[in-house]
Design a protein that fits this description.
2 domains, Cytidine Deaminase, domain 2, six-stranded mixed sheet
Length: 272
């Protein structure tokens, strides 16, 4: 399988002035299996780019590992029908994962992973402790700054992005994917692999803010989450409990702030 992030696809455009043949760049998505010590934990549909970042970010934000040092070996393996991200974990971590699988075994009538997985879906996260401070202007301009890093979206108009905003420096790192959760996992994995401290900045998203995004940020130690769109009510409640600053509708020179406003300097300032 060729791991290309996008593919040129023929089509036919229908417009009021007539029809014509076209070729468009479309984002690719392939099944990516997360395999730990020979056992598949999850299969995700993802854009086949930055897969090492994606795999590590997924492993960290899903609590499969709590430290990159728990990964003894890692490889990406292409298959005809998908890709495997293969991890070999330390013995103690492999045992903990095996125990977690036994705990989650059960009926699947709910459409998830059994009764215990309902608790997992709304799992508690450790409170985030951070001395991060952001200016209101940084927050208001964050999604505009992220646009400069969305090369795949510029080609396809069909991908999400997650960026890392450092106070006074703008968006210093970004990752893209057809899935918003995948984009955030890729970003978190990239931060860890590049030895960038997640506690020193904020995550910026092109999507709405859901519970899962707050969970992933909190587990990674990211204390502020900024997005161009709206949060869900559950995301706001979890952010408040977890100590995460949640800023939404960050566009046009403004934003709405829903939790932990102490991290935003001059919150009431005119940033338009």
């Amino acid at each position: 399988m060729t791991m290309r992030a996008h593919v040129s696809t023929p089509g036919r455009a229908h417009r009021t002035e007539g029809t014509r043949d076209i070729h468009r760049a479309l984002p690719e998505e392939v099944p990516v299996a997360m395999v730990f010590n020979g056992t598949t934990q999850a299969v995700m549909m993802a854009t086949p780019a930055d897969l090492a970042d994606f795999a590590l970010g997924f492993a960290l934000t899903e609590g499969i590992v709590t430290d990159p040092a728990q990964v003894e070996e890692f490889e990406i393996v292409d298959h005809a029908n998908g890709i495997e991200a293969r991890f070999w974990l330390t013995e103690s971590r492999a045992q903990a994962l095996a125990e977690r699988r036994r705990t989650m075994a059960g009926p699947v009538g709910c459409g998830l992973c059994g009764i215990d997985s309902l608790d997992q879906a709304l799992r508690a996260v450790p409170p985030v402790v951070s001395d991060l401070r952001l200016s209101a202007e940084d927050v208001a301009r964050a999604t505009d700054a992220l646009r400069d890093h969305q090369r795949l979206h510029d080609l396809t108009r069909a991908t999400h992005a997650a960026g890392f905003l450092l106070p006074g420096s703008g968006v210093v790192l970004a990752r893209e994917d057809v899935g918003r959760h995948n984009a955030l996992d890729k970003l978190i994995g990239a931060l860890v692999r590049q030895n960038i401290d997640p506690t020193q900045g904020a995550a910026v998203m092109t999507s709405r803010l859901s519970v899962e995004l707050v969970q992933k940020c909190a587990l990674a130690g990211i204390s502020a989450l900024i997005a161009v769109s709206a949060p869900t009510g559950a995301a706001v409640r979890l952010a408040d409990e977890a100590g995460v600053t949640l800023a939404a509708f960050a566009r046009g020179g403004g934003f709405d702030l829903y939790s932990h406003s102490q991290r935003i300097n001059n919150e009431a300032a005119d940033v338009a």
